[in-house]
Structures are given as C-alpha cells and as structure tokens.
Amino acid sequence: MNTQNATDKVSDATHHAAESARQAAQSALQGAQHAVQVTRNAADATLDRAEHAVDGLRQQVDPAIHDLAAKAQALANQSIHYCARTGERLRQQVDTYRGATTHYVVHNPGRSVLMALATGAALATAALLVSRRRHA
Questions:
Q1: pLDDT tens figures, 6-20
Q2: Cβ 112 vs Cβ 104: under 8 Å
C-alpha cells in the first residue's frame, strides 16, 4: 500500500497543482478582462470629453463664422452701392461737361474752331515727333 499511498499522494499533488494552475489562469484571465474593460471605459470617457469639447468649439466658432459672413456681405453691398453712386456721379458730370461744351460751341463758334485747329495741330506735331524718335 505504500505504492498506492505514494501514487495517491502524487495524484493528489498533481490534481492540486492543476487546480492551482487553473485558478491562477482563471484569475489572470479575469484580471486581463478587467483591464480591458477599464481601458474601454477610459477610452469611452476620453472620447465623450473630446466630443463635448468639439461641440463647445463648434458652438463658439459658428457664431463667429456667421458674423464674418454677415460683415463680408455688408462690405460687398456697400461696395456695390458705392460703385453705383460713383458711376451715377460720373454720368452726371459728363452730362454737365457735355452741356457746357455744347453751350460754349453754340455761343463761340469761331473760338471753338480755332481751339479745335490748335489742338489738332498740337496732336499732329506730337505724333510726328514720336514717330521720328522711333525711326532714329
């Protein structure tokens, strides 16, 4: 029975060692699962905080973008109106000068012809001088 006792003791020891190893593996598995869950929770919390931060930034930026767009639109409208007013003033000035010129020519026809001849002669002389410089 000595052999039987020794075999039983070895069997019990092996069984006990296997049970201890199984419990250690089970404990390690539970620890790893817990670590994975804690990591997931931390990642979820970090993503939630990031999402809230992005939402907060969006709420701050959206009004600024709308404000800039409104200012740009207002500036464009002002520029359009300014150009329209300037064009209208220019048209009125041209009409005024045309009327004054017509009035002068009607009331001073001799002087008008002499001024036209003098202007034509000055332009012809300038054109002649410029053409001679090009050929020289």
A1: 787 878 888 888 888
A2: yes
